[in-house]
């Protein structure tokens, strides 16, 4: 196995900076050198299951792992770039020989490794401590190990027969999460789904079935006009669910929020009353625990009171905020969540689990099964030799499902509940630090002036030219153009990434979110200074 | 980096058979020995992004990779076991110290590696050449490399901003697949979704929106009673879609098939006529290209004629059969697919791509976008610096999506279209070999006597006691019990795995499917001999 010694240098950190294919001549020469066993003349058909394919398989995968390890180490360095931006047309033209085209004839293994390096090179380092662009960020090493194992096991979360360990892990995780929400042992059920939007869709589906079980067989035709309630600041997945499920977006009633982005219970109450007065049939309320933009927590107990009074299904979209339940310091912000009929909770957001990992948790046992089961005979044979209640695939609307549970399970082993709590606390401390910094600087302005409840901080950068302008439509118009211009320059520079958006009548503002434990205070400082550097002349 | 030399033995093939923790005393000693750098006293908090965490990170991931490489090599050996079966209660009790419980306090890295080994040990080797249990099987090494890279890149398929390379790869793949279907350059759109069931759901959603665009805003309330058509042998995801979308399972009209499992066009025609006569509104027909159990191909051209005549959306569920399009020898079986309005095609089935990888392809450009877009401002800002038509996340009903495209892209580079074709041919040759073997043996009986069109072969095993019985309810009753008993013994023995099910009035029969290129004729022989060995005394 000489190739290992030969590959050793690749593990050095800045070797990847020496991009393999600086020009087309070098194409196919991974890192500019030839490899001992000559992957240049080996093809995928030489890998396992080919007879004698073991050595080639190990060599190829080991080479790939070396590339990945170098990438990981580089991603975590604050001074390295977050991205190397190119426009779509540039990437499509085949930068430095990186061709996206799909061939008729096979390429050799060395070329594949070059393709892998190029793919990483032109991508975005979401694990970088200065990537603040999405609710999901960071690269948890144990979670990553979990993903590597999951893809090696390559099975389907559907029957105990083919996923014995993973199905039991799913059960253990769901029970743990239901317990943390505060449901009793007789309560609590759930399923992992492909993302928070799908989990929220499950919640509306379940609420409708719970109220009108005949909808599964008869459809919406005989039903009265159903309406559901969610706040102006809630995630657009509630709209999407209404569109998909045949309820219709117009039948969503958006409830007003306070200036902080929290749903106003009095507004919910009056919206329900006015819907009823019009002959509409309310059946579902979505409360958000951690809104996407402001990071606001709706007042769950007040909303639960209203839902109880009107007999409505209360869903809590804690996709973003669920992680706070693991912090004794912050879990009070979700008080009342135990009164929900269902909860969406995405460990791939605040808990730092690699994408994707989202759970829909349901208080009432058995409802998922009765809502979704179709008893396909080729999968769910009743005459198996084991306890078929573990064939839980029929609870989902997906048939087979990707195994999203193992990485979470392994991370839980690695950190313990306490470790997750510490991670959440660290992210929220960063948010508070950013909030204080912004308050103290004249060139930044908060979108709303109160301490962050979650890790979202929303703010404007004010270039010199705007600082002395008095508020009004002209200032707003000019302010609106600032964030996109800074973002464009930021992406060209590639040192950091943060998102922006308008909201209601508010001009484009930046939203910084923290979910990456790698981020430190100096990275927060860097972000503000970088924005100021990029925008001062605007 | 001494640990590498020290770890070398782990790469030997049967080292994993020496299970690390034979008893509780050995818990925490990975493979019964201590590791140089002592992962026993290192925790996840010592890994990156911890300061000086680089070495520990490389060591931990390298150890994990060694475990995975050993597992992969072992999985591919025909003589090794496919599974080591335990009942749910046994696994939950903590076999040999393997505890599924989630701790409050962290566990050390060595313990995590032991947990990883145990997870693999008690799982099912779906890449094993004698695993015939699911439509998805095999372990493609290049696909696996693709998954390892994907999870390391850990990003979300939603905006070009955070997934530039992967979104372009999705576009390239979708264009390629649309071209292979036979759509012109002006036609063809699509999105990768989390599995065939979701892809089929997309098709019904699109068909409904195409006919009644107001459903997105108004819901199903004002609509007439919609009905859809699919064959008795089609996948249950069509039912699931009707339940989820608010159409209702009762509004699915199941069309009769011939004895081979193909939809009878005359039956479709008369079903449509009779639905119309009742005042129902047909809008969608699902034709299957490769049914789940029999592997049958519906006559697509005849069905397309009927759909054209009645103005109905024609969907082709080619989740299982789509791969045959890459074989010049077999693609004729899908003749007429180019006339479909939409197609489901799962590369994770017949093309051997690791789970999950499924595409919904749509003939009409722009329809996915208009059906599903909600223009969330925090994601799809119109004032970005790049061509925002590449922010294709709004075409999906999922918001963020797992990156399922890279592994397929990399496999396509590795094999070329030709390599996929050869792989499909090999699997279908195995099926034909099995079919011929069964015909020649008195102890096996085919469920229907015609050469397999896909790689499905359905058959009964007849123990001595049944061979001389005349057909009738008593023989059926006894035959029905045979397959479950053999399957139970098969799983206890762990040498192979194949599925069984009843269908209509047919007693439980085995369904063998081939999608694993690792499978050779001796494995097919083994399956039959093993079934006979396990069942001869029944």
From TrEMBL, chains A, B:
Biased composition (Basic and acidic residues): 1-28
InterPro entries, sorted: PyrdxlP-dep_de-COase, PyrdxlP-dep_Trfase, PyrdxlP-dep_Trfase_major, Pyridoxal-P_BS
Alphabetized GO MF terms: glutamate decarboxylase activity; pyridoxal phosphate binding
Location of N6-(pyridoxal phosphate)lysine modifications: 349
Complexes and interactors: Homodimer.
Homology family: Belongs to the group II decarboxylase family.
Descriptive protein name: Glutamate decarboxylase 1
Organism encoding this protein: Chanos chanos (Milkfish)
Gene name of the record: gad3
